[in-house]
Amino acid sequence: MKCSFFILLLSLFSVDATSQVDDKGLGSFWFKILPENDSLFKQGHSSERQLTSKISALIWNIKKAELKNWKKEFINFGKGKDLFLVQEAYETDVFLSTLNAFEGFEWNLGASFLYRKYGDAATGTMVASQVEPAEVFVKHSPDVEPIAGTPKSATFVKYPISGKAEELLVISVHGINFETNGAFKRHMCQIKRVIEKHAGPVLLAGDFNTWNFSRTSHLNSVTSGLGLVEAQYKNGEARMSFAGHFLDHIFTRGLIVNSAEVIANSVGSDHKPFLLDFSIP
Predict the structure, then answer these.
(1) pLDDT tens digits for 245-255?
(2) Nearby residues of 10 by Cβ (< 8 Å), 6 or more positions away
């Protein structure tokens, strides 16, 4: 029994990053991987045409809406928000019914995979706003998680801004987790290439799974090289961490961050939600 457990740990934390997205692994019995072009799922309809200069956002890894207080907290924290960036969104009845509490929003879910057992319910990263997007697309991580064979996703949405020719690029990220530092760097490089091509302001946020020094250092190097700055958080020490390294981050470029707060007393997920207020100069 101990030997089997040790072999499992070795496979989960293997130093050989040979996984590819088209290798579904042992998880193919439970999980269905879609091509990136088929991984976007939309809920609701937008009611506005452009973002205003002052924007508030809720950013949160919701742990697939599993915990009993999640719905109440999500509705409470989401009141009056213009943007939502969600990780581990999951098309359960409770999740979809919660989205219906927000009228006039378009919710774009970039699926990492589908759960075969639960009617091919999608799970992944999500971006939502009352504003109709100019463009939406999904990227799957170049590497996949060991055993499960599932990629992580990032959802990219571009929104028109009132009075400006440029668009706001919003990215909800869930970083590759149980893989090597090399796999993490490849995932961040994928996101970097998209941001490099965007001339306007950027909001990059989510659960990056930066659970060691190498990952944290690399993320800081990539973001600073792109002109992105990490927000200064109230209650930042309340964020989920591993071995002293925080997993969740908010980075911006071309925006004025008025406030960024971690809701330390939240119990709706294993991650704490962020409340972000920013302006577009």
Answers:
(1) 999 999 999 99
(2) none
Up-side HSE of residue 2: CA atoms within 13 Å toward CB? Answer: 0
The answer to whether 88 and 123 are in contact (CB under 8 A) is yes
Instruction: Give the helix, strand, coil percentages of the chain, each rounded to 5.
Output: 25, 35, 35
Task: Tell me if 110 sits within 8 A of 154, measured CB to CB.
Answer: yes
pLDDT at residue 25, rounded to an integer: 60
**What pLDDT, on the 0 to 100 scale, is given for residue 28?**
77
pLDDT digits (tens, 9 = 90+) for 162-177: 999 999 999 999 999 9
Give Rg (Cα) of the chain: 18
Q: Output the pTM of the full model.
A: 0.91
- Positive or negative, the CA dihedral 43, 85, 75, 122 is positive
What is the Cα–Cα distance from 237 to 149, expressed in whole angstroms? 32
- Residue 275 parent element (H or E): strand 274-279
- 15 and 146 Cβ atoms separated by less than 8 Å: no
CATH of domain 19-279: 3.60.10.10
**Residue 197 banded pLDDT, cuts 50, 70, 90:** very high
Domain boundaries, the chain: 19-279
Contact yes or no for 77/263 (Cβ under 8 A): yes
